[in-house]
Amino acid sequence: MPEETQQDKASVPPGPAIDVDLSSKKRDSERQEDPRQGLPPSVNVETASGPMDLKKPDPKAKGPWIQYNGIATVRTMSPADWKAAGVECNDYHEWNYLNHKRLPRSLFSDEQLQYLLRIDGRFSLVTDEQLAKAEAEEASKARNQR
Prior knowledge:
The chain has helices at residues 23-33, 79-84, 110-120, 128-145, and strands at 65-68, 75-77, 93-95, 102-104, 123-126. It has a domain at 65-145. By secondary structure, it is α+β, with helices and mostly antiparallel strands. It contains 4 helices and 5 strands, in the order αββαββαβα. The longest helix is centred in the C-terminal third of the chain and has 18 residues, at 128-145. The chain is extended.
């Protein structure tokens, strides 16, 4: 067999240098591992090890509603949470997917509403009309995407 020379070998020219910034990937992975996800220290984060027993909504409940707009899948306010917020209340409130993260405004005192709507900042007051309008807009967008 004849000896291969340099000219006989297939050569592939080197491609362009690829500059990969792994720092953003590292930040993303750190963010996924951080259960606080940038929340302030005053927010208590609990990670469930199993399914929760969610509080079922009252089927007779009527709006207007206090809607939770935060990132948690379940938001609760226990008597201890109300006390820590400086509000006298012995009630337990839970916003979850079963109640669409909404509770009737009628459940709350003026003092509780002040805390939820003005201090906490992750709640809003919504009416049935606003909800119906938002649902109609969503349905229209879904139809237009087809």
